[in-house]
Design brief:
CATH topology: Alpha/beta knot
Number of strands: 4
Helix content: 25-40%
Distance between the termini: 19 Å
Strand order of the largest sheet: 2-1-4-3
Shape: globular
Largest sheet: 4 strands, parallel
Length: 95
């Protein structure tokens, strides 16, 4: 199973060694995709632009995609396992 973790974040130079170690521990089937944040416009315009970038990225892939948010619904491991279809071989998590 291939897993992609997609996030919008600025340069994480101060976290570079920790991110490298994390990716190494996750193994070859997990990739991290970092999307540069939008910096111009009002708060609403930035959210709309970043949302569109995410939608464009998702549309390029034919994978099961899950949006993870601190405002979202909390699930137990068992609930989450039921949510993720067993037949999906490529998952994308957006944080």
């Amino acid at each position: 199973m291939k897993i992609e973790i997609m996030s919008i974040s600025d340069s994480d130079k101060h976290f570079a060694s920790a991110i490298t170690e994390y990716v190494k521990r996750l193994g070859g089937d997990v990739t991290l995709t970092n999307i540069k944040p939008v910096k111009n416009g009002s708060h609403e315009q930035i959210i709309a632009a970043e949302t569109q970038v995410l939608i464009d990225q998702i549309n390029k892939r034919s994978v099961a995609t899950y949006l993870l948010s601190k405002e979202g619904k909390s699930l137990t491991t068992e609930q989450f396992a039921k949510l993720v279809p067993k037949h999906d071989h490529h998952l994308c998590f957006i944080i």
